[in-house]
UniProtKB/TrEMBL annotation:
SUPFAM superfamilies associated with the record: Glucocorticoid receptor-like (DNA-binding domain)
A Pfam family hit: THAP
Record family assignment: Belongs to the THAP1 family.
Cellular component aspect of the GO annotation: nucleoplasm
Molecular function, one GO term: zinc ion binding
Coiled coil spans: 142-169
An annotated GO BP: regulation of transcription by RNA polymerase II
Residue ranges occupied by any THAP-type domain in the UniProt entry: 1-80
Localisation per UniProt entry: Nucleus, Nucleoplasm
Lineage, top ranks: Eukaryota, Metazoa, Chordata, Craniata, Vertebrata
Keywords: Cell cycle, Coiled coil, DNA-binding, Metal-binding, Nucleus, Transcription, Transcription regulation, Zinc, Zinc-finger
Name under which the protein is recorded: THAP domain-containing protein 1
Protein's organism: Amphiprion percula (Orange clownfish)
Length: 289
């Protein structure tokens, strides 16, 4: 790095001296050059060392980023090997910039420049007051949007509450379905969702076998009572149609009497769907399982 630009001075940073750039302000730069007694144009690399500045030209507390001394904004170098410099050091803490004299106000021209008048025309004060009052009043559209927002928030909260209730109901129904699966087959559970008068359920072989056992255990009246109260069981005609082997027999014995014999015979005379033929005296159809 270069050294000091002052005449007869070879100080540089290599010997621990701090160097300062020439100011960018043309007026201050000219003072620095004249005080140096050197006729030259400083370059961006021109420097003056700290020995050419009085102690009053440095800040008392402020330090440069490198940790060295920092010049005041209006510092001027005055310590050189020649006589007194033409420009003495500035002792004020800042540069006094003369204020521009205020122009004398001319007579206002009341032409078309109404916006620049100092004294408002009659009626303008009332308009300004009305405009300020309008600005302070709440916006009607804003109030309407705010009300709609509150209604939407209430509707959303209501839907969320209904969704929570539906989740609870689904959970209870799932538990009920699992409980029904302990003693009902899948086709019986599906039959529960059908109406009593229009049931067209498809029964599985397991359900048919189970229904036959229940009818033989409780009898015809008990079996029909279970169907009337809603227990999912196939009708007697469905039981007869789903048997693999059918034998037409004539008997005067009722279903209870046949069940007591333990032969596996079932009669259609007691079926709630009516007689098989048109003759009431014809007997039932017995089926051997």
């Amino acid at each position: 790095m270069g050294g000091c630009s002052a005449p007869n001075c070879s100080n540089s940073t290599s010997i621990g001296k701090q160097l300062f750039r020439f100011p960018k302000d043309p007026v201050r730069k000219k003072k620095w050059v004249v005080n140096c007694r050197r006729d030259f144009e400083p370059t961006p690399h021109s420097r003056l060392c700290q020995d050419h500045f009085e102690q009053s030209q440095f800040e008392e507390i402020a330090r440069s980023p490198a940790g060295g001394k920092k010049l005041k904004p209006n510092a001027i170098p005055t310590l050189f090997s020649v006589g007194d410099p033409p420009y003495p050091a500035v002792t004020t803490s800042y540069i006094l910039i003369p204020l521009k004299p205020e122009p004398v106000e001319k007579e206002l021209n009341f032409g078309d420049h109404g916006y620049a008048r100092r004294t408002p025309l009659p009626g303008l004060e009332e308009e300004d007051a009305d405009r300020a009052a309008e600005d302070q009043q709440p916006c009607t559209q804003c109030q309407l949007l705010k009300k709609q927002l509150e209604q939407e928030m209430q509707h959303t909260a209501r839907l969320q509450k209904e969704a929570e209730e539906m989740k609870k109901r689904l959970y209870r129904l799932d538990r009920i379905e699992k409980g029904l699966q302990n003693f009902l087959y899948e086709d019986q559970i599906r039959a529960l969702s059908l109406t009593k008068r229009s049931r067209r359920a498809v029964w599985s072989p397991e359900t048919i076998l189970k229904a036959r056992k229940i009818r033989c255990a409780v009898g015809t009246k008990g079996y029909e009572y279970l169907r009337e109260i809603g227990y999912p069981l196939p009708s007697y005609r469905t039981l007869c149609n789903r048997l693999e082997t059918k034998i037409m027999v004539t008997t005067d014995m009722s279903c209870e009497e046949l069940a007591e014999l333990g032969l596996g015979l079932m009669a259609t005379c007691d079926s709630p769907t009516g007689a098989v033929g048109d003759n009431d005296e014809e007997e039932l159809i017995s089926v051997l399982s």
